[in-house]
Task: inverse folding
């Protein structure tokens, strides 16, 4: 357990105009079976009743702390929380989500038992309407459960490609500080979790995994499409920062391996971002990433072994024929879109290769399009 001055766990809760969900979020912390923690609620300039809700918890329980700051976005908010954390471990709880009562107990036990720098669990997808519903989401699958390993050096690299659910884990604070793992301070809430997640798996020498679902990840509050040109390229900024992190913190074969993983992650993220963009922003985004990916291929950064046939065809089309790529994405959104996408990208030969690959089950990533385990 912790000493009398410092809690064992610091839970960071970033807050911006979430009065609708915040009571349930903070109540889930107050109800934890593990009680050696502090809750650092960082208010990013909310204009609703969110700060008052936090003050109510702080008045009743000294473990709850309100930190007010001017609005500057998710990354800056999280970094303020990291700077204020005093615990041996850091946990993250988004203000519209809520923990299972045993979440901290399970994660701390796993981390302590394995002497791990990070302990990771699964979570539920949660809907409150039209009727309350929970669906398990596995970012930790059978081959990972109960294991403690170094992700960048292990034969199993699937964890890099799972959904960046940074809130279903705890992290040793000294591990984060030693490895310079912080959030990129870009506007709003735009992909900063992806960079944080990648740095954790790249740097960790001892990561451990449990099968328990520790949190409800709310789906009612999911963001809609991106209509702001200022945010359209935030994902590119995040991947540039991740590449710089690799080159600054690693050397030799680690750089080669992590760069290859990063390039495969990048394609997934860029496709996801493209599909979310307002149609008016898509052509300019494709033009930018086409040049970027062409440079990556020319520089030998791409590990083709990590690209299944459909992904390789997407990459090649983006590099050499962006118009064909855009036709394939339009086809993908139509009924029977998966087949039409393959036909648009590479005709019957690609469709045959994709079906054969799927039948053989040779997925190094073992990850579906939602970032869950296959």
Result:
């Amino acid at each position: 357990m912790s000493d009398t001055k410092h809690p064992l766990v610091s839970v960071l809760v970033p807050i911006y105009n979430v009065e609708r969900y915040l009571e349930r979020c903070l109540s889930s912390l107050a109800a934890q079976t593990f009680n050696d923690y502090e809750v650092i609620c960082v208010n990013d300039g909310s204009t609703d009743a969110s700060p008052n809700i936090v003050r109510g918890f702080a008045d009743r329980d000294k473990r709850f702390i309100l930190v007010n700051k001017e609005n500057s976005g998710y990354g800056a908010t999280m970094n303020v929380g990291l700077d204020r954390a005093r615990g041996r471990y850091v946990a993250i709880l988004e203000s519209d989500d809520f923990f299972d009562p045993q979440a901290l107990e399970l994660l701390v036990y796993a981390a302590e038992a394995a002497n791990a720098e990070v302990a990771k669990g699964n979570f539920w997808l949660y809907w409150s309407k039209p009727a309350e519903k929970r669906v398990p989401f596995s970012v930790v699958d059978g081959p990972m459960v109960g294991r403690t390993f170094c992700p960048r050096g292990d034969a199993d690299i699937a964890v890099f490609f799972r959904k960046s659910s940074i809130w279903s884990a705890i992290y040793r604070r000294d591990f984060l500080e030693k490895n310079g793992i912080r959030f990129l301070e870009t506007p709003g809430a735009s992909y900063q979790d992806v960079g944080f997640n990648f740095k954790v798996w790249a740097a960790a020498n001892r990561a451990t995994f449990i099968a328990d679902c520790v949190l409800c990840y709310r789906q009612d509050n999911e963001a809609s499409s991106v209509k702001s040109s200022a945010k359209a390229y935030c994902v590119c900024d995040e991947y540039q920062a991740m590449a710089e992190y690799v080159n600054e913190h690693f050397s030799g074969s680690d750089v080669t391996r992590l760069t290859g993983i990063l390039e495969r992650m990048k394609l997934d993220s860029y496709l996801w971002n493209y599909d979310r963009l307002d149609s008016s922003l898509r052509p300019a985004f494709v033009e930018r990433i086409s040049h970027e990916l062409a440079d990556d291929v020319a520089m030998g950064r791409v590990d083709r072994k990590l690209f299944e046939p459909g992904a390789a065809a997407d990459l090649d089309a983006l590099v050499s024929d962006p118009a064909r790529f855009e036709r394939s994405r339009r086809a993908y959104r139509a009924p029977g879109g998966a087949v039409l996408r393959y036909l648009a990208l590479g005709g019957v030969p690609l469709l045959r290769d994709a079906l054969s690959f799927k039948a053989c089950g040779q997925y190094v990533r073992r990850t579906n399009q939602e970032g869950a385990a296959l």
